[in-house]
Design brief:
Length: 119
């Protein structure tokens, strides 16, 4: 085993000891892949290897500084709207509330100060 490998192994053991005792300090897993930039229509494209948590169709926000690729982040997708037309009319056994069931008894209002309330 070379000196670099020994140092790498010692560093891994240290990280496991530190992060194992404080799980909220979990290290960031990084992977390095080699890929090529190619032309796709009028744009440039990069193939992303499978095995990442990315999926086809995801929108990404690309950060480029001084012409150098730095990073990309997933764009927050808008929340889907609930389609009421799909469920309209499906609860056929529901009936309107009767008028006598809508009447409530009057009661005194309680104050926020508990010492002022009557026992």
């Amino acid at each position: 085993m070379t000196d670099d490998n020994k140092v790498g192994e010692e560093r891994k053991k240290f990280n496991m000891r530190v992060f194992g005792s404080a799980p909220w300090l979990k290290g960031i897993e990084k992977q390095r892949h080699r890929t090529k930039v190619f032309k796709s229509g009028n744009s440039l494209a990069v193939r992303i290897p499978s095995g990442t948590k990315l999926s086809a169709g995801m929108e990404m926000d690309l950060l480029v500084e001084d012409g150098q690729f730095l990073s990309y982040d997933p764009v927050e997708q808008p929340k889907r709207m609930f389609n009421i037309a799909k469920v309209a009319g499906s609860a056929t056994s529901l009936k309107p509330i009767r008028r006598e069931d809508r009447i409530f008894e009057d009661r005194p209002l309680r104050s926020r100060d508990k010492s002022k309330d009557e026992p």
